[in-house]
């Protein structure tokens, strides 16, 4: 069984277990013939929602793939499911449950605060190192990631911190900045696409949804309305960060590396020595899931996604960085640029030059 098949099997088992738990509890409280529900069954239901579901989610989905930060979302979602499925006359007997949720969220916040403390305690060294690397260019995320790897290596929570830092930096503090590349040749990849229009449309839709749903939810559940408002504000900042990151981080070709960052959500620092070939793409317009497993799609989103211009094949798998510390190894890259012929000739020449130097 391949790694992909194993992952799919795990996800399928996860959804089977979760569906069974939700269905069993729903039937228990909604079918009149099963009334009255014994108190032991109610305790079992609470354990299902507050312990079993979070643990299943951690072991099947989150572990080794996502940050522990997501456990807070899982616990809140499980509590919400319990609130809607277990009748209030049973649920209200266990008034301590909200405190368990708040305690769990508090512990996760403390963990994040500890990470922030570690970063702040090393801040002078981090700033000095960042300045020595960056040369005041606009490749913010590449340089911060490199700096954090030097001082706080292999820490998933630090990777989450980097995502949050990048999002706030790009969305709030880069409105007047211009792309500035000090080392290497830069190639834009968004000017011939409608990516900005896509994100502006998404921001517009999110704002309208926030106003409408916040008003109606506030009348039903004040807490739920504020949670949704927070999520929508976060989404708007995320979309703004993508717009500015795309503008400020073109693809960069240096003497020994090809830096590919698409927005702020995915990036790759690729040594030229690892490139087998670059060629004009001649494959299908739409790729199947199996092909996407070992492929990095470095294109921006578009209303009508065009066929890739180039395909880069690698000598051995290389790592792609996604938000929140998620990583993936790939052997192929597909991408588009605004000036394809210039980009192709430059990369082709750099590959040949690197191979000549290696020999």
From TrEMBL:
<keyword id="KW-0812">Transmembrane</keyword>
<keyword id="KW-0472">Membrane</keyword>
<feature type="transmembrane region" description="Helical">
    <location>
        <begin position="12"/>
        <end position="29"/>
    </location>
</feature>
<feature type="transmembrane region" description="Helical">
    <location>
        <begin position="223"/>
        <end position="241"/>
    </location>
</feature>
<protein>
    <recommendedName>
        <fullName>Beta-carotene 15,15'-monooxygenase</fullName>
    </recommendedName>
</protein>
<feature type="transmembrane region" description="Helical">
    <location>
        <begin position="98"/>
        <end position="120"/>
    </location>
</feature>
<feature type="transmembrane region" description="Helical">
    <location>
        <begin position="41"/>
        <end position="61"/>
    </location>
</feature>
<feature type="transmembrane region" description="Helical">
    <location>
        <begin position="68"/>
        <end position="86"/>
    </location>
</feature>
<feature type="transmembrane region" description="Helical">
    <location>
        <begin position="197"/>
        <end position="217"/>
    </location>
</feature>
<keyword id="KW-1133">Transmembrane helix</keyword>
